[in-house]
Amino acid sequence: MSVKSASLKSYILRRVLQSIPLIFAVIIFNFIIIHLAPSDPAVLLAGEFTTPEWLEKTRNYFGLTKPLHEQLTIYVFNVVRGDFGYSFYHMQPVMDVIIARVPVTLLLMVTQLVFASIAGILLGAISARKPYSFTDNASSAVALVGWSVPSFWLGMMFIMFFSLQLGWFPVQGVVTLREELTGLPYVLDVLHHLTLPAFTLSLWTLAIVFRQTRASVMEQLWQDYIVTARSKGLSEKTIVFKHALKNASIPVITVVSFMVGWMFAGAILVETVFAWPGLGRLIFEAIITRDYPLIMGMVIIVSVIVIIVNIITDIIYSLIDPRIRYR
Amino acid sequence: MKSLDKIYKFKWSGCTLLICILILSLKSPVRITQDAEEPKYSGTMIIQNRAEPPHFNLGISMAYGMEPACNIYESLVSWDYNVNPHPELAESWEISPDYKTFTFHLRHDITWHDGEPFTSADVKFTIEEVLIPHNPMGKLAFLFFESIVTPDDYTVVFQFKMSRVFFMVFLNPVSAPMLPKHLYENTDIMKNPYNEKPVGTGPFRLAEWVKGDHVTLVRNENYYDKRKPYLDKLIFKTMPKAETALAALENKEIDVLTAAATGMLLHEVPRLEAAGFKTSWHGWEYWKGTPNLVFNTIRPITGDIKVRQSIAHALDTEQITKLVGQGYYVVSRGTFPSTMPYYKPDVKQYPYDPEKANELLNEAGYPKDSATGVRFKLNLISDATIPSLVKASEIVKAQLKEVGIDVEMLPLEVGTLIARETAGNFDLIMELGTMGPDPSTYWAYHYHSRFIRVPFGNMAFYTNSRVDLLLDMATVNVDTAKLKEYYYEIQDIVAEELPSLLFYETRDPWVFSPDFGGVIPPGPNGGYQSYKNAYWIKGQEQIAPSPVWVWEVIVAIVVVVAVAAAVAVIVRRRRTQAQ
Q1: Domain A98-310: top CATH class
Q2: Prediction ipTM score
Q3: Which of A75, B362, B425, B481 is the most buried (most CB within 10 A)?
Q4: Nearest CA to CA, how far is A294 from chain B (Å)?
Q5: B407-426 pLDDT, tens per residue?
Q6: Domain B288-505 falls in which CATH fold?
Q7: Closest Cα in chain A to B236
C-alpha cells in the first residue's frame, strides 16, 4: 500500500468519525428550530372541523405532550437504533416515505448536475480561451438568466413554449399515464418527461459552474507554464483543455460539491411546477404539515449526503492534484 | 417469366393478407358509437388531485388529497347536487319522529374487494372503533351518540340521546366511510397496513399507488350495481400547482381540472369554455365557501361594535365580489351561505357608505389624525396559499384606507395562521368560511363560545349567551317551526353584532375534457364521492360479446386456408414450369 493511499484512508476514516457528532449536532439544532415554529401537527392534521378532545388525543398519540428535552432524547436514542420514527401525516415509517421518492429524485438531481457541470465547464473553458467573443458573451448571457431568473418562472415559461406552443415535451409528471409502457419505450418516455425539469433546474448550477470555470481557466492562462506550453508549439485547444482546465478544476469541483446541498432547495419549486414527485416537494409538504419525524429524517439524509459528497470531493482533489496529501 | 411469377405470388399473398385484415377488423363484437348522451363503457379518466393522499383510510383523516379513497370506500348513502340522500350501502332507512333513532337496511349483495361480505357488523365496528375515536369530525358527526344496535346482519340502528335532525348529512364517504371489520379489528387503526392497500366496497379498487405522483384505480368487477361503473380506470394525478394542472389539461395530459385549481384561475374559464372544454358549476352545494372578514372581538378596537359596523359600511362588497370572483361569485346578503337550511335573506344589511362609516368611527371615539389622516392601525392575516383571499385582503386594505384605517396585510402559511388565530394574536382575519348543510354543527362551530380557540372555529372569540342558548336548543329540537325561529333569531343577532362580515359565496367550476360526460364532479361535496356515474363518450355500448374463442377459431381457419391456397398455387406453378 502506497504512503499516499494509506494516508488517504486514514483521512477518510477520520472524516467519517468526525461527521458523527456533526450529524447529531445537526439533529439537535434542527429539532429545536422545528419546534420553535408556531402551530403543531395535530392541528394541521385535523383539517377544518374538529374538537379539542381529538386534538389532545392526537397530541398524546404522537408523544407531543412530553417535555421537549424528553422528546429529543427519545428521538436521538431511536435514531441510534436505526428507528427514524413514524410520519405524522403519512402514518408510515419515515424511511419508507423517503425511500419511495429517492429514485425519481436521484434521476432529476444527477441528470441536472451532470448536464450543468459538463456544459458549464465546456462553456467556461471555451469562453476563457476567447474572452468577450460571441461565444463568451452568449454564454455569459445564458448564465445571467440562469442565475437571476427564478426557476419556477423559467419552468412555467418553458412549459408554455415547449409544451403548449410547440408540443415538444409533456407538461408534467414522470411518465405518460394513459399508456402502460415497458422496456425501452418506458425509458424513452421517462427521459422525455425528464428533459424540461432537469434543464430548468440545471440552469442555476450551470451559471455558477460556468462563471467559476471561466474565471479559474482565465487565471491559469496567465501562468508561466502556459507561456512555456505555447512556446513549445502546443495547440491552443490542448493548452486549455489538457493543461489549464486541469489546474483550474479544484475550485470548480468545490463549487459543484456545494451545489449538491443547494439542489434540494432549488428542487422544491421545480418539482412543484412540473409535478415531479421528488424529495424537494416532500420536505416542503412536511414543513407545511409540521411532520416533525419526516422533517428530521430528511435533514439527516441531506446532512449525510452533504458529508459524503464533501469526502468524495476531498478524494477527487488528491487525485487531480498529486501535490495534495492528507495526514 | 420469373418476374411475372413474383408479381403473381405477391398479388396472391397480398390478397390473402387483405382478406385476413378485413376479417380481423370485423372480429370485434362491439359497436362503437359517437352518441354522447347515453353512458358508455370503458375508458380511462385522469383527474387532477391537489395534494398527495397520506394514505387511504378516510376514517382517520380528512386531509386534502383523499379523493381517490372516496372511490374505494362508500357510506350508507350517497348525495345528489340538491343534497338529497340516495341508497348506497343502505337500500332503505327509517327515521323516528323524534330524530333519535335511525334504522338502516343494508343491501344483501355487497362484498368487500377481497370477497368478504359486507354486514352490519362492519358498520358497528366502523362507527364505534374508528370514526368516533379517530376521525377528526367523529365527535361532531356523532354528537349525542348513545349506541348502535345490529339486530341482524343487514340492519343497523343508530340510537342518539338527543334529537339529531341533520345526522344524515354526515353519512358521506369523508365523514362516515365504512371500513372492513375483519381487516381492522384488534389492530392499531392508525398504523394498519390496509391504510395503504385499502379494501373497500366501492366501484373502484386500488391498482397502483406511485407515491407523490399518482393513484390508479380500476373497475371493481364485483360491484353490487352491475351497470356501473362506466369507466375502466381512474387515475388521480397529484398536481398541487393550479397553473401546471391547467397546462396539463390543455395538453390533454389530464381530463379533469377540479375546483381547487379553477378557484385560482377563474379568469381562464372563459378561454377554456371557448376552446371546447366542459364546465360544471356543481360541487359546492354541500360545503359552501363564504369568504368573510372575521373581527377579533376581544381586542379593544375590533371589539367595539361601532367599529365593526363602520368597517362593514366602508367596504364595497359588490366591488370585492366582482374583482375577486371575475363575475362568477355571488354577493352574500346574509350571515350564512344562502344554500344552507333556514337561511334568512332579510337580515340587517350594511350598504357601502363611506360617510356613514366615518360617522360611526367618529362616534366610537376614533377621529382622524390631522397630520396622517389615520384613525388607527389594524393587522389583517390570511392564508397565503389561497390567492383569492389575499386579493380580497388587498381590496379591503385599499377601501379601509379611504376611511382612515391603516391595514397591515400579513399573508401567512397555514400553520402560523392557525397559531395566531387560536392565540387571538390578530385584529382581522380573511378566511374561507366553509360551512356544511347542518346548521347545528357548522353554525355552532363558527359562533358558539365553546369553539373559541378551536382551529378554524369561533375565530372571532365571539361570546353571546343568547346565541349559545339558541344554538344549543336548535341542535336538539325537531319542530321545524321552532328551528326556523331559533335560526332566524341567531342570524339577526349575528347580523347586528357582526363578529364577521361575509363578502361573497364561491362558485368555482370543474373544467373537464369534452370526451367525458355524466356526473362530474361526482357529488355536492366535489370530488368526495365516487366517479361511478362518469363515462367516456367514445366508449362502448355494453353488448354481450360473443364468445371470444369462436372468433379466434374462425380467424385461424381462414388464415390457414388462405396460406394453404397460396402455397398450393405456388407449388402448382413451379411444377408447370418444370414440365
Answers
A1: mainly alpha
A2: 0.90
A3: A75
A4: 12
A5: 999 999 999 999 999 999 99
A6: Dipeptide-binding Protein; domain 3 (3.10.105)
A7: A177
